[in-house]
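notes to self, project folder thing:

trying the whole complex as one job this time. last attempt i did each chain seperately and stitching them together was a nightmare. two parts in total, labels are on each line so i dont mix them up again. if this works i'll redo the older ones the same way
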Amino acid sequence: MRDIPGLPSRRGFLKASAATAAIAGIAVPAKAEQKPEPVALTEYKPDCLKPSEWVFVMAAVARLIPSDGDGPGAIETRVPVFIDKQLAGDYGKASDWYMVGPYQPAASPLRGWQTPLSPLEIYQQAIPLFDDWCKTTHGKIFAELDAETQDKALTSLQKDEMKIKPELREFFGILLANTKEGYFSDPMYGGNHGMAAWKYIGFPGARGSYKEWVGKHNVKYPLGPVSISGERG
Amino acid sequence: MARTEKKKDVVLVGFGWTGAIMGIELANEGLEVLALERGHDQATVPDFQYPNMIDELKYGIRYGMMEKPANTTVTIRRSLDEEALPYRSLGTFLLGTGVGGAGTHWNGLNWRPMQSEYRLKSYVTEKFGAGVMTEDMTIQDYPMTYEELEPHFDRFEKVAGISGTAGNINGKIVEGGNPFEAPRSDEYPMPAMPSTWDGVKFRDAAKAAGYHPFPSPGGIASKDYKNEYNMQMGPCNHCGFCERYGCYNYSKSSPQTAIIDALKRKKNFEYRVNSEVLRVEKSTDGKTVTGVTYFDHKTGEEVFQPADLVILTAFALNNVHLMLVSGIGQPYDPNTNEGVVGRNYAYQITGGYTLFFKDENFNPFIGTGANGFCIDDFGIDNIDFAKEGFVGGAYWRAGQTNGQPGHTMPLPAGTPSWGAGWKKGIGEWYGHAMNIGAHGSVMSYRGHYLDLDPTYKDRHGRPMLRMTYNWHPNEIRQTQFMKQKMEPVAKSMNPTTLQEGFKKEGAMFDVRPYQTTHNTGGTVTGDDPKTSVLNRYLQSWDCHNLFVMGANTFPQNTQYNPTGMVGGLAYWAAHHIRKDYLPNPRALV
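result (full assembly):
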C-alpha cells in the first residue's frame, strides 16, 4: 500500500491507534468531547457594546424570546453575545452596503435602508433615546421595568409610538431580526448555544445529507442537529 | 495611467453561464479567448466545501456569495416622477459575483418558454385582438422561432445536466410530463428528481382537480452524469442549501460543474479575476468596438484590453449598464418612446398559498432548489386573455427548497412576531407547513425601463444604473386570477389553516423582502433597430463585433425562470458566430 504524499500515513495511523488503545486500555468515547461552558453572560466582556447598551440588549432579547414556556429563550441561547459580535463586525459597520449620500431617511419604508447610519450606530443612538422614553413614560429605564411593562414598551417601540426620528426607524426591526438570527444561527457565531433552538424546532443544522429520506413521506426525521464545527446535539 | 494588454481574438465581459458557454465554444474554434471577471475566483473546492458552505448566517442572511452593494448597485424608483434611491442593502433581488456568477447560487429551476411566448405580440393580436393589450404595453416578438432555438435548448440542457420528465417529444404527448410544453427533440438528460411530501400532496390535489402535474425540471443531478465536455455530476443528496449557496456535492448545475474546469485546460483560454470592465471602447467611426477598458483591482489601474470581438456576458443589469456608459446605441426615452438601450425592462411576479397541517411532517430541511411538482394549466398558452382581462400566465409549483429557520419560517397569520406567542408558534408550526407558488410573467411597458442615474455614482465615478419599475395593473389582474384558481386546490388539501400571499390592486414595488432575481430586458433582441438593441443573433445593430448575451435580451419576461432561455440563446448565438460571423465578420442582418 502506497501512502499519498502530504497526507498522514494510513498504516502509521492504524499502528498508532492500536498502540494508543493498548496502552490506555480504554474505549474511544462514542461522543465527541463537549466544549467547556463559555463565560457567564454576566461576566462577558462585550466587543463593542457599552455597559448600558449591553444591559439593554440583555433585557430586550429576554422579552423578544422569553425563557418561560416550551423551548429555550434568547438568554440561555446566548443571543446577546451573538448581537455584540455581529455589531462589532462587518454587519454592524454596514461594510457591504452602499453608504454614500445623499440620503433620504424619511422615504417610504418600502424603499429599503435609506438612513446614513450603520446598524451599530442605530443601536448606539436609539438605546439611550428609548431608555429616556421608558423613563418618561414608565418611570424607569427599560432594563429596570417589570416584564409586563417591558412588553408594553417594546410594543410601543414596534408601533413607533415614541415617534423616533427617521434615521433610527429601523431600530426595532434590526433588534428583532438580530435576535432571531442569534437564536437560529450556527453556534460558532455566539448564539444558539448548545444548538438548543435547533433542537427545539427540529432542524438538523449542518447534517446536509438526506437522500434516503426524500421518499419517507410524512415521517418525522429522527436525528438531532450537528453544527458546522462538529458539535452533536 | 492605463496599461494596454496584448490583443485577444475575443474578450468576454463576465464569467458566469454565458461567459463559460462562449468561452468554451469559441476556444474550441481555436481563438485566443479572454474572460474578464470583476469578482473573485471560486471553485467547488475549496470555496463551496462542506460544512462551511451550509452556513445560513454567512450566505443565506448576510449574502456572502453576492455582489456587495458597496461595490455595485442600482437606484430604484417606482414612477417617472419619483426620485430614485440607491438599493443600499440586498432584498428583493440578489446579484451574484465572482467566477460562475449567479449560476453558482441559483435554485436550478430550468425551463423553455411556452410556444406563444416567442411571438407574443403576434399571438395576442391574432388570437384576441390588439385591444387586450394595455395602451402602454410594449411587448414584441422574438426575432427567431422556437423551432430555430430548439436544438440549442436541447444542447444547454445536456451541458448543464437537467433532470426532468418530458411531456412532449416531437409532438407526441408523454404521460407524466408537461403536456403543454413546446415539443422537444429529446428527453431530459436525467430522469426527474424524487419529490418530498409537500410536492406529492400538491401533485395529487392538482390531478384530482383535473390539472396536469409533472415533476419540476431542474439543474439538479438525479443520477451520475457526464456531459459533452466530459464534466461530471454526482447525484444530489437533498441537503436543502441550493439558493444563495454554492453546491458542495457537484450536483447542482453551475458553470463550475458543467464547463469551467474543462475550459481552464485549454491553452488558448485565459481568465482574469478582480478585473472589472468599465466600458466598451468604440472605433473612431463608431461602427465597431476595439476592446474594453477594465479596472484591475490587484494593481489599482485601468487597463485597455484590445480584442477583435467583444461579448457582454455579465448579469442582465450589468450588460445594460455597460451599453449605457459606453454610449453604444441610443438610450431609451419614455417621454418620446424613442431610443432602445434600457427599453422593455421587466421583473417577475410571484404569489402563493401557505398551508399548515398540524399533524403532518414535511421535514422542510430536505429539499432542492428545483424540488416538487408543477402545473402549467395556467400558462400563457392556456389562458383566454380576452375573457380574463390580462396578458400573461404563470406556472405553479410546490416543492420545499430549504428549512433554514433564520429566513424560512412560515407561521399562520396572527402569530405574534416576538415574545411567548412567537416562540410557541415556531415550536408548533416548524416542519408542518408547505407552500404552493405561482411564478408569473411580466409584460414590458413604456414606463418601465433602465437608464443612468443623474445623482448617484458607483465607486469608479460612473453614473449608477437607474431602474424605473412598479407593479402594473395587468400583472395584478394576472396574479389575482392565479389566487382565485389556486384557492380551491389549496382548500381541497384540507389544511389545518392556510393563508394567501398575492399582490393586490395598488401594490407598490417593495425592495425589502426577497422576491426574485429575474431581471429582464434593456438590450432586447428584435427585427427592428428602432425597437431593439440586438438583431436575431444577439449582435449589436450599431457595432457588428459586439454581441450581448443574457436575460437583458428578452423583449418581455416569460412566465418561467430565465436560465434555460439564457443558456439556449447563448448556444444559438455561439453557433451563428462560429458558422456565419467568424468566416466573414460583418453585420449578420
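what i see at first glance: Chain B has one domain: 3-581.
need to look closer tmrw
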